[in-house]
Design brief:
Elements: E1 5-9, H1 16-29, E2 37-41, H2 44-54, E3 59-63, H3 80-85, E4 90-93, H4 96-101, H5 106-118, E5 122-127, H6 131-135, H7 139-150, H8 156-161, E6 163-166, H9 180-198, H10 201-204, E7 206-210, H11 218-222, E8 229-232, H12 239-246
Parallel strand pairs: 1-2, 1-8, 2-3, 3-4, 4-5, 5-6, 6-7, 7-8
Helix pairs in contact: 1-2, 1-12, 5-7, 7-9
Bound molecules: 1,3-dihydroxyacetonephosphate (13P).
Residues 9, 95, 167, 172-173, 210-213, 231-235 line the site of 1,3-dihydroxyacetonephosphate (13P).
């Protein structure tokens, strides 16, 4: 059985005091939740303070990016040792905003994924097609390449641990979510590709859906067989709405 994972990607939002404020309320709002794993991914600057605040709670911490080298002359970059030191157990890799604005490619996603797994940090590897790609009917081709290249060369055990997030670019921050059927179609395709790559690990890998997930549409999405959780932007920024998302099944 795959334990659902509800992850909040805060993107470039929140100062340290703002982050702590949200986390304090979230902590008490979700204190009794045990059937869903809860993850928040603040900006780098807030990681350490948030890690301190969530100690002993049921909330895990993740970063939004990493650099694969261990240390050295890489101005502006953050290593895995630094992320671990700041309390992270997860890291988002290859978000479409990083692909679009910061030159992330399937090859750099793969280097980061391998480095994260080797360091014992769980990667949340993002894939997803643009609107043009969907309209051009190349969605499956695009997703297949992103999965095959981005997640290649890992061990079967690592393949079970990794998390994949399907985020159609046209659904991110637009209020236009994929329908549960549209999402399920891609999720089951991703699992099929993964099965070809890593056999039984495909049954264990969690595949999250992301793109305008909110407290009103989460239950219908989560009913689908191959949707194992959400990667949530806007609706994760406030404790109240994120807590509602975490409690989707109630
Ligand atoms: P929204 O939930 O704001 O659409 O963002 C989705 C996303 O990009 C999460 O990584």
């Amino acid at each position: 059985m795959r334990k659902p994972l509800m992850a909040g990607n805060w993107k470039m939002n929140k100062t340290v005091p703002e982050a702590i404020n949200v986390v304090k309320s979230l902590k008490s709002a979700v204190a009794s939740v045990s059937g869903v794993e809860i993850l928040i991914c603040p900006a780098f600057t807030a990681l350490y303070a948030v890690s301190d605040e969530i100690k002993g709670s049921n909330i895990s911490l993740g970063a939004q990016n990493l650099f694969w080298e261990a240390k050295g002359a890489f101005t502006g970059e953050i290593s895995l040792e630094m992320l671990k030191d700041a309390g992270c157990s997860y890291v988002i890799i290859g978000h479409s905003e990083r692909r679009q604005h910061f030159g992330e490619t399937d090859e750099t996603v793969n280097k980061k994924t391998k480095a994260a797994l080797a360091a014992g940090i769980i990667p949340v590897v993002c894939v997803g097609e643009t609107l043009k790609e969907r309209e051009d009917n190349v969605t499956f081709k695009v997703i297949e390449k992103q999965v095959r290249v981005g997640l290649s060369g890992i061990s079967p055990q690592q393949a079970s641990l990794a998390v994949i997030a399907y985020e159609p670019v046209w659904a991110i921050g637009t209020g236009k979510t994929a329908t549960p059927d549209q999402a399920q179609e891609v999720h089951s395709f991703v699992r099929k590709i993964y099965e070809q790559m890593y056999k039984e690990s495909a049954e264990k890998v969690r595949i999250l859906y992301g793109g305008s997930v909110n407290p009103n549409n989460v239950s219908d999405l989560m009913k689908k067989t191959d949707i194992d959780g959400g990667l949530v932007g806007g609706a994760s920024l406030e404790a109240e709405s994120f807590a509602k998302l975490v409690e989707y099944s109630k």
